[in-house]
Design a protein that fits this description.
This protein is of the alpha/beta class. 26% of the residues lie in helices and 25% in strands. Helix 1 crosses helix 5.
């Protein structure tokens, strides 16, 4: 696993464009991710974490398309929440705009989203961490973002622990952006829409009440 400094954004983005898996700091904990349009690499992220398929992951959106209109169909109340709390630790699960070019790239053969009886959904966010957002902005397409740990285990806040964890395993990320020890913030809050109301699936860094 290659160790990169926060000044090595360009090198990290080159790795992402080549199909690499990167660990990077976020506003909550260290995250692990890749180019969301590369289904093979998304599957690697799941394998590295031991994450079951069907759970999906969050996608960070670039500033060039801050609400991902080509990727998702917004429920009005969820869009209001995005406008209020983004950039920030709020993951919003929304319906995928199937048939669009970017949705096809992200969803085809990839475990990135979730299937429901009504269609496909995906979790999206804009990051308030400058390094995470710089990565996705330079990449130009959505960036997979899920906690850099083994699925079901606690979040990790320092690069040394992550290097030790994955360095002892056969499947490893290709690189880590070492931003040192992060503040131990709660995980992201997760919301979605149910029958026209905002439903809080996980309370986290942003405390919300369900809307009625």
């Amino acid at each position: 696993m290659k160790i990169l400094s926060p000044d090595n954004i360009a090198e990290a983005v080159d790795l992402l464009k080549q199909g690499g898996v990167i660990v990077y700091p976020t506003e909550t904990s260290y995250g692990i991710g890749c180019d969301a349009t590369n289904a093979e690499t998304v599957a690697r992220v799941f394998a590295i974490k031991g994450r079951p398929e069907g759970k999906g992951v969050t996608l960070l959106l670039p500033s060039s398309n801050p609400f991902g209109e080509e990727l998702v169909d917004w429920d009005p109340k969820l869009r209001e929440m995005a406008e209020k709390y983004w950039p920030g630790p709020l993951n919003i699960i929304v319906e995928v705009r199937m048939g669009s070019s970017i949705a096809t790239q992200c969803m085809t053969g990839s475990p990135v989203g979730r299937s429901t009886p009504e269609g496909s959904t995906i979790a999206v966010r804009r990051s308030s961490h400058p390094i995470a957002q710089a990565l996705v902005d330079a990449l130009g397409v959505p960036l997979v973002s899920t906690s850099a740990n083994i699925s079901g285990e606690k979040e990790l806040y320092d690069a040394k622990s992550i290097v030790e964890l994955f360095g002892a395993r056969n499947l490893q990320p290709d690189a880590i952006i070492d931003a040192g020890l992060l503040k131990k913030n709660p995980p992201s809050t997760i919301i979605t829409s149910q029958n026209g109301n905002v439903e809080v699936l996980r309370q986290g860094a942003i405390t919300l009440e369900p809307s009625r």
